[in-house]
Amino acid sequence: WYDTDMNKSGLVDQEEFLMLLQRINVYLKKEKAVRIFKDSIKSAKNETKTTNRLGSKSGRQGITFDECIALLREISLRENESSMSDTIFDELFGKDNDTVSAEDFLAKFIREKQTENSVTLDDVSCIFSELNSMEISGSVSHSGEEGFIDRMRFQEYLMSARNEAYDPAKTRFDAEKMDRPITDFWVDSSHNTYLQGDQLKSYSTVQMYVVALHRGCKCLELDCWDDNGTGIPVIFHGHTLTSKISFSSVITCVKKYVDEHPDTMPIILSLENHCSLPFQEQMADTLERTLGSNLYIPDPNGELPSPSRLVGLVLIKGKQIEDGDATETTASSFEDDETGALEEQIHLSLRVGGAAKGREQPLPDIVPELSRLTLFNGIKFKSFADSSNLNPHDMHSFSETKALKILNNPLNCDQWREYNTNHMSRVYPKGIRTDSSNYNPLPAWHAGCQLVALNYQTEDSSMALNVARFRENGRCGYIPRPPRTFLTGKEESMRPEAALVSIKALSGSCLPKPYGESKGEVIDPYLTVKLYDVNINDEHDIVSTIEYRTSAVRNNGFCPIWNSDTFTFTVRCPEIAFVEFTVMDCDHGFLDDFMCRAAIPVNCLRNGIRCIQFFDKCSQQHGPLGMARVLVDIDVKYEL
Questions:
Q1: Alpha-carbon span 65 to 72, nearest angstrom
Q2: pTM exceeds 0.85
Q3: In the beta sheet, which residues pair with residue 124?
Q4: Is the pLDDT confidence value at 556 over 80?
Q5: What is the rounded CA–CA span in Å between residue 613 and residue 599?
Q6: Rounded Cα–Cα distance for residues 30 and 15 (Å)
Q7: Which uninterrupted H or E stretch holds 542?
Q8: Buried b (16+ CB within 10 A) or exposed e, 17-26
Q9: Which of 21-30, 132-141, 351-360, 508-517 is least confident?
Q10: CA distance 449 to 491
């Protein structure tokens, strides 16, 4: 409103109203829009004759906020004959009714349609009280009739967070589950956390650590190198043109976050240590001096603790002093030295300095001061047979290429799940993803890998899945792994049931323009609904996808109605699978434009008529996404 009322008069004039229609994706021919606006002005003037509000009755040139909202509602009804919420209201409560009682709302909608059997009449009374206390333009207040709501307040409920498709019970933090060993959890993890953009020449900033932490990330990566010019350890992507930041500035950032969030679940610092011994001594000193009592000092002979015992602490993943040559000796980009010679040669040739000249030189030994701070000890992977007898503190890191190679062999897959029962595994993007794109995390999660690291700076489908996964459990960054991720082929009969998911796309509301722009043509939105699942067969575990789309609604992003056919999905792994909802703008003859997306784990979907809410890259709802909603009808049935 404040952007629309550019002259701050408290009224929207004709030109401002026409600009508003364009901005919120309402298409009307100019002549028709002008006529509607002038009719509204005329009606408003007639109403002000007796009250003489807002100045003289002949000088009125604009409409107020409430009048503007009422006019937009009227336009939406003209465009669609009736709103989707009215259609739903008619089907549930009857065409002749303009209000619904709390008793009918509970029986016919909440319990029968939404299958929320735990909701009571007292709960509905609280909802009605909240809805009736809201000021809704064009709606008659029912504050004196707490037992009823009207159609507009029913629409408000449909589009509210109370009716979100993502089950709010799954988003609540469950402290009781945090007493399990840390190996029993998926941990929100990032790759090369410091980078703003690509892997070759983008900026490294401390701010990226701030953003990751506030988004819930609990495993941060620090690529540590000597800087002989300054004499201090620095962080950047070695042998590239990426900029450098000091190691100490990142540790100070982590300390500040822990001080401001003393109840945070443990933060893991994954040290990619390329530093010489004197610089390692500086790193150890910085960690102890800056983090103080927030730095966890591990017992080398003890078991891995639970997250609940590590609240407010910082854990170190790196290398420990060991006998023999078991310690990792190469950079994490090639920690599993079976990644493949071709991939390594391509990656090295992209680095500054020309063509690859073979494998990187072995990393220096670890200093005792840093070794004693390290909880998770990186060990070079040879085979799961060799790994099964390792100390629980020892762990492996795998590139996505190596991970998929393992998953292509059912025997290896079972051994990996068994290994992950008592040890940690980390998976990271392959080296040739120099554009900072992401791999699909589902196969690694399904194998029980705890640290599935993604490029946080890239907002793609994989990152949307990660955001949706870690929205669970209060966004604390730790999700208890489901039983499926502990099972091997021998226990096939114990696998959870499959599911049949049916989704019908109903309508949209306040959909943004591509890239959140305020100007541009009115959009032609359509919705895609895509299932990401793990395909289990006799040969390998891979991601399977099925995608449906609605037709495009021409020139209407404000209140498009799709009322599509029902999209049906058979889900093999409900505990792992996701449904992704993506709104696109149909560009005839050109590539369609992305507008917004949201993903929901299948086991977090709620039955009934639900709204899909959209979030920005910082998991917030404001700006163009603040009011964007999609209404869908969901039915999830579990099968034995």
A1: 11
A2: yes
A3: none
A4: yes
A5: 10
A6: 10
A7: strand 541-549
A8: bbbbbbbbbb
A9: 351-360
A10: 19
Q: Residue 336 burial (CB < 10 Å; 0-12/13-18/19+)?
A: buried
Per DSSP bridges, beta strands 99-101 and 148-150 are: antiparallel
pLDDT at position 134, please? 84
- 302 exposed, middle or buried (CB, 10 Å; 0-12, 13-18, 19+)? exposed
Secondary structure (DSSP) of 225-252: EEETTTTEEEES-TTSS---EEHHHHHH
pLDDT at 361 over 60: no
| DSSP SS3 for 371 | helix
pLDDT band (50, 70, 90) for residue 342: very low
Q: Enter the DSSP assignment of 576.
A: T
Show Cβ contacts of residue 624 under 8 Å, excluding neighbours closer than 6 positions: 512, 513, 516
Query: Does an H or E element contain 122, and which?
Result: helix 121-132
Tens-place pLDDT, residues 1-33: 556 767 677 788 888 888 888 887 877 778 887
Whether the predicted pLDDT of 136 surpasses 90: no
Contacts of 312 (CB under 8 A, 6+ apart): 258, 262, 263, 264, 266, 294
Q: How many CA atoms lie within 13 A of 379 on its CB side?
A: 25
Confidence of residue 639 (pLDDT cuts 50, 70, 90): confident
The H or E element containing residue 546 is strand 541-549
Mean pLDDT of 452-469: 96
Q: Report which residue type is found at 529.
A: V
User: What's the CA gap between 221 and 226, in Å, rounded?
Assistant: 17
Pairing between β-strand 593-601 and β-strand 578-585 as defined by DSSP bridges: antiparallel
> What confidence score (pLDDT) does residue 1 get?
53
List, as one string, the DSSP characters of 334-361. GSSTTS-HHHHHHHHHHSTTSS--SSPP
CB distance 408 to 350 below 8 Å: no
362 contacts 329 by C-beta, under 8 angstroms = yes
Give me the pLDDT at residue 45, please: 62
Is it the case that residue 344 has pLDDT exceeding 80? no
Q: What is the pLDDT of residue 50?
A: 43
Which string of b and e fits 594-614 if b means at least 16 CB within 10 Å? ebbbbbbbbbbbbbbbbbbbb
Residue 556: closest CA among 582, 509, 523: 523
